[in-house]
Specification:
Blueprint: E1 3-5, H1 6-11, H2 13-17, E2 27-31, E3 34-38, H3 61-70, H4 74-87, E4 91-92, E5 106-111, E6 115-121, E7 131-137, E8 142-153, E9 156-164, E10 177-186, E11 192-198, H5 217-220, E12 233-236, H6 238-241, H7 243-249, H8 259-269, E13 276-285, E14 290-292, E15 298-301, H9 304-320, E16 333-339, H10 356-369, H11 377-383, E17 386-390, E18 393-394, E19 416-420, H12 430-442, E20 447-451, H13 462-470, E21 473-478, E22 480-482, E23 489-492, H14 493-514
Parallel strand pairs: 1-2, 4-5, 7-16, 7-17, 17-21, 18-22, 19-20
Antiparallel strand pairs: 2-3, 5-6, 6-16, 8-9, 8-13, 9-12, 10-11, 10-13, 14-15, 15-23, 19-21, 22-23
Helix pairs in contact: 9-14, 12-14
């Protein structure tokens, strides 16, 4: 039997479960020299659609935890997706180059290192065939450093930050925080390098005011001023620890940021402080993503909205075309599109409001057309296409059940939530919901429905943006979660595997289902 510590089990469960031989039915946990024999929670679950064993339907939950722990920012999420695609045999394209594509090929490109489009061309693709797309987003609500972040108050060094998106900002107080993002570095030959950085140790904290100085906080509510109260502490008296850094920065552009912070970044990047010419950093929570709950049935993590959807889509695409023959009978093009800036409206170069995905579709169709001279091949392809807009969904909160419409209360562990809104805040229609549910029905996968109460406002997704951009059939769906937009969110472990199976089934079977329904 394997012996692990309590701390190791709590913070890195998937790493230790994966080390257990399949023949072990139990393992020991050392809690202060006492040993308890327990049955290990399974990270693999058998599909309800077949009698296959868990070994043929491996769980992706452990891999998701690794992805979340790597992906502190939208840049890191994109870079990790890029790494996995290359490892899976996908060919990296450049938007600035001419593309030479072939049926059966697998390709991807990135934009701004925060947006990614990947696709696999069916071997039976012919001009005018459609795209089967799953779209999600890489960004999450967070705090970002201002262009001039250096601030000092009462002998503390502090960092000025901006709020990004609609976060539950009170949850960022009293957390062990750090910084991560991208840095532009000057190379020795005078060129500039784009590098990612992540300071893993706790570096920052936004402290709350003691209740002795705020006696009414529990009755009047915690109402911080986001400009003056949400300012992280970095250090005290850094000039004693880094006297040279302060001296060098006195007449340098680096004066916009504390010399101590710049020194920490240079240490992480193994470069000189003066070689750092620009930074774009998020404030991040350092607590690792992990399993939780009495039966390890939950995932506790930041950024589940929407990296959980992004990773399920990524893995579904990779695994749906990873073996020889997976694309041999495919007539369509399988695609994922992961966008940035959804949390602030998507109107950016790297957001879903840009024509990134549709420009890629047109280029793909043109490259595969060869000498085809028929009429409107791309327009016909769009008419045959289908988009799954995957973004996390509001699971019913047991302490606030009245916030959900009585008959539409999504629960954890019960499958993807199909989102409806009569006012088109979601792009789902009766037809698109039916087709997506037919995919699930064919594979015995559960689905749920969500509609917001009439007396409450409704959020939105990239679904309506993409659907209206060129006219592609779209369904909005998501994994049920709690604490959405908190620094620490929660979803059901089982729903991750259900979403992955549903997405993979979509790629493999949608063509056969779609041809059975004629609307126009």
């Amino acid at each position: 039997m394997a012996t692990i510590s309590r701390a190791q089990l709590l913070h890195h469960p998937s790493a230790y479960f994966s080390r257990l031989p399949h023949s072990h039915s139990s393992f020991s946990i050392n809690f202060r020299r006492r040993k308890f024999s327990v049955t290990p929670p399974l990270l693999c679950s058998s599909s309800s659609s077949s009698s296959s064993s868990a070994s043929t339907n491996p769980s992706i939950v452990g891999d998701l935890l690794n992805y979340l722990n790597e992906s502190w920012t939208q840049f890191h999420a994109t870079a990790e997706a890029k790494r996995q695609l290359i490892a899976a045999g996908f060919h990296l394209l450049n938007e600035n180059d001419e593309w030479d594509l072939r049926p059966g090929g697998r390709y991807f490109f990135t934009r701004n290192m925060s947006c990614l489009v990947a696709f696999a061309v069916g071997e039976k693709y012919i001009v005018g065939n459609g795209f089967h797309v799953i779209a999600a987003h890489t960004d999450s609500p967070c705090l970002k450093l201002k262009p001039k972040s250096a601030s000092s108050k009462s002998n503390y060094l502090m960092l000025n930050v901006q709020t990004y998106g609609g976060g539950l900002w009170h949850t960022w107080f009293d957390r062990d925080l750090s910084v991560a993002g991208r840095v532009i570095v000057r190379a020795s030959d005078g060129s500039f390098l784009h590098k990612l950085v992540k300071v893993k140790r706790p570096l920052l904290r936004v402290p709350t005011l003691a209740i002795h100085l705020n006696r009414t906080v529990n009755t009047d509510g915690f109402k911080p001023n986001l400009e003056t109260h949400l300012v992280p502490l970095l250090a005290t008296k850094p000039e004693e620890a880094f006297p040279e850094s302060k001296e060098k920065s006195s007449s340098s552009p680096k004066a916009a940021h504390h010399p101590l912070l710049m020194q920490i970044l240079s240490d992480e990047l193994c470069c000189d402080v003066d070689d750092i010419v620009n930074i774009e950093l998020n404030i991040c929570d350092t607590q690792p993503s992990c399993l939780g709950g009495a039966n390890n049935e939950f995932i506790f993590s930041g950024r589940l909205d929407n990296l959980a959807s992004s990773y399920c889509a990524l893995r579904a695409l990779v695994d749906s075309c990873g073996s020889p023959g997976d694309l041999s009978s495919e007539h369509a093009i399988r695609m994922i599109a992961l966008f940035d800036n959804e949390e602030v409206g998507s109107d950016s170069y790297q957001g879903a409001g840009a024509p990134t995905m549709f420009q890629a579709m047109r280029r793909i169709a043109d490259s595969l057309a060869n000498s085809y001279a028929g009429e409107s091949a791309f327009d016909r392809a769009i008419r045959q296409s289908f988009l799954v807009s995957a973004d996390m969904a509001h699971g019913v909160h047991p302490n606030f059940m009245d916030k959900h419409e009585e008959h539409h209360r999504p629960e954890m562990h019960k499958g993807l939530v199909i989102k409806h809104n009569a006012n088109q805040r979601y792009a789902t229609s009766g037809v698109t919901a039916f087709l997506f549910k037919e995919v699930a029905k064919m594979h015995n996968l559960p689905t749920q429905e969500f509609v917001v109460r009439n007396d409450m406002g409704c959020g939105s997704t990239i679904g309506p943006i993409l659907a209206s951009g060129v006219g592609i059939r779209t369904v909005d769906c998501g994994i049920a979660q709690l604490s959405m937009h908190s620094v620490r969110e929660v979803c059901g472990k089982e729903d991750i595997d259900i979403a992955y199976k549903h997405f993979k089934a979509f790629y493999r079977t949608f063509s056969s289902i779609d041809r059975k329904l004629i609307v126009d």
